[in-house]
Design a protein that fits this description.
The chain is mainly α. The chain has one domain. It is built from 15 helices and no strands. The chain is globular and about 50 Å long.
Amino acid sequence: MKTKHWIVFILLGLVWSSSFLWIKIGVQEIGPMALVAFRMLFGALTAWIIGAFQKVAWPRDRKTWLTFAIIGPASLAIPIFFISWGEQTIDSAVASILNATVPLFTIVIAHYWLHDDKMTLPKVLGLLAGFAGVVILLSKDLTAGAHNSAIGQGAVILASLFYAGSAVAARKFTQHVHGVVRGAMPLFTSAILMWIVAPIFEKPFLIPALPITWVAALWLGILGSGVAMIMFYYLLHEIGPTRTSLVTYLFPLGGVILGVLFLDEHLSWQLLAGTALIVSSLAIVNWKPRKV
């Protein structure tokens, strides 16, 4: 990856690292569908403002809208709902580990669906090393976990499958679309879907009353969706879905490091070992031997 790709990759990891915390906060007051609906709404508005500022041309053909009508909910509304719903019954550490299976699913799907993102031994070894790093990093939280339902865990794994499949599909079918539009369109279609479905199927459909819930919805919408999706789709088409999906390995790493820096948490061997494995996985997957 080039320097500009690393910068966007790290920024995306920092933004998304806090998502599990804010989801956990949000679902304390409102239902998961309501949280996703507000998140998609704020994300779509943010992406539209960015697009308007850059004066991009929004697509008008039916085929492009139909493509994003499928990819949008599959990449955002559906998996985010599964994670939000699952985090009602599982710990955020468990959700982070299960979400880190996205690169493992992605490399398999991309191998059979894309011609320029094939499975190689370095990629497989790198992905496995990174996943091992995530597990080690969060091993203390796992042993201290209070309750983790099998259904909740299954929901997050299903979300990971949706993330992986939709990322590969987006790389394959949206090459012709402008960069900002690629990130904005999934938010538009997801917001439309959620505001139709959520009030019907989630009873009662609650509007946030607590300020902290509004903060969670705004953070998840503006940064975690609007800005993040534009960065994500930029990387998706620049470096491919397998390398882009490695950003999920940064989620728990960012959370643990912030805890050490700002919450006086203990610098444990798990942090050192997990960090070493995750960093090595990024190096292995992105390493290319020099041609002689």
